[in-house]
Amino acid sequence: MTGSNPAGPATPKRRFSLPAGRYQFSRLFFNAYLLTMGSFVAIAIVADFVISTALRDISDDYTRRFMQGTVAMIEEDLFRQRRSEWTKRIKTLGERFNYKLGIAERDEIRLPASQGIKLDAGELAVSADGEIVYHRLKNTAQILVIGPLSPDRDPDNRRFFTLEMRIRLLTWGLIGLFLAVAVWFWLRPVWRDLEALRQTARALGEGDFGARAPAARNTAFELLAETLNAMAERVQRLIATQKELSSAISHELRTPIARLRFALEMLAETDEPAERERLWQMMEEDLDELDNLIDSSLTYARFEREQPELHLVGTEFIPWLEEQVEDIRPLGGKLVLTLDTGRLPIALRVDLDRKTMPFAVRNLLRNAIKYAQVRIAVSAELVDGRIRINVDDDGIGIPEEERERVFTAFTRLDRSRDRTTGGYGLGLAIARLALELHGGTATAHASPLGGARFTLEWPARAPRE
Description:
transmembrane, kinase, transmembrane helix, transferase, ATP-binding
């Protein structure tokens, strides 16, 4: 008999997949061309309407002036004939002109109100399209009709493709062609940049954090490409830091955990009070070491991940530096720890972040305490508008070729893990990150005391915008 699964069949896990596809240049071109051409045609139509309306009175006045002599001549010729012969005579006269002539009754004529008033007053009236001229024949009710003036508007001569239509078709065809070429040359680099950014984003989404967007061909995408590359660089560094932290912390945890396990085993096997007290002390120190490791790792990860926003405050520097040294002095035990501020102005004020800068100074002092034999000397000076703090010890020193590497996280040169010189290689890395946030540097040199000198330097006053 087979057992049943009360929870039901297992639900398959969904795998994250990026959308497929790419930017189609033909679609982008077609949409952009339609939008541009449609906008251009709409603007041209509106502009033509506005200009035609504004110039209507001028055009009508010109037509009246131009046709005044012709109308007077035709009217004079008609009045030399009997009115019964006007229709025959107007056809004869019409054969001499390139436009039609006709006679109509007043009530057959439909004109705008302004033109109707002119017609009734004996002036020339012009149709709305400017093609037909009307004139009242002296005091009669008959109207002389002249036009259409343009041959292409004459119904008897009308062609399917008039000259005006052919010119319009040719003009708009050339405009459409030139606009298509312009849109193509404008859109091609845009499409290439969009496709390059899409491919870069897809590669990053698939886990290839080494992918970078190429230089943009269109200036509109330069900032976007730079931002995407900076983001990729940031993500790549964060992931590398995370892997480095995970690997290093797992390695660092083994030693204190192994000592704790050993001390617990020894504690279970001994009844001697002195030995049990020693083992308890060992375990407390191991717990302190684990706590310090976690605290240092979290601090370093926060600096790498967030790059905290600085809140620079003008601070009286000498009292502040004295406070940092006095807070660390108890950790030095019998070591001689001195502070020299004689080369600083008495009332010197320095811009610093009172939350992040103590990490740098105190980590340098803790490092000196680990390696110093007898003496630690702290000095400060103001050089060319920059604050410089030197921390010297008389310990073993640092080889010149290793002085830059000591600022890398989880780097230790002594290789020992006893509690006297053991560390995690994070203090100096945190110090450099804090100084970089202040626009400064942290460096290592040889000390006049025979050991190592660590120097912090940053602008005393932040530039004001």
